[in-house]
């Protein structure tokens, strides 16, 4: 069971005056209030139901009307394909369940993990210099984010870091994590993730952990850190034309 904050945030995208279709497998909502960059949103819940929200212009382009008749997840995806509407590419979205969050809050923090600040700029710059450009882009861990935590070795070298920033104005903090290659496989990442997530929870924020569907290592990290899959989230591609 997930926090009401999480449920309310995700469900808010699918609250609309016009519900085109609703069944056990699929719900489709026309929502004029969606941001232009997210004028088409899909959320496939871990239980299997696909939820779709789209602005009227997108609904019109694919021929989706309030009288659309019987629909399935497969038929809606086919309509998008036939209309030439590309998607950004789905992410797994993980959150802590209520029970997992309670366990997180009750555990002590490892002594070699702590919050980072501007005073750690030199150590953080050295840390980033040893990571590949691809790893830096994928993780997006920055010292000036809302919260930053790191794990240090016996020589005070930064081995792993995670940072968070508030997501879409909600009480949800999106997380990125990066471990230097030399320190992978030691369990540093999941310990740092739990430390920063505990900090976020104590500040009133729910953690959001996102990764691509084919990123097996990141999926394993999320589960080891105690997070549970909420669903798969996708939006319209940035360069899609409507």
From TrEMBL:
Boundaries of every N-acetyltransferase domain copy: 111-242
InterPro entries: Acyl_CoA_acyltransferase, GNAT_dom
Gene3D superfamilies attached to this UniProt entry: 3.40.630.30
Pfam families, sorted: Acetyltransf_1
Protein name: GNAT family N-acetyltransferase
Source lineage: Bacteria, Pseudomonadati, Pseudomonadota, Betaproteobacteria, Burkholderiales
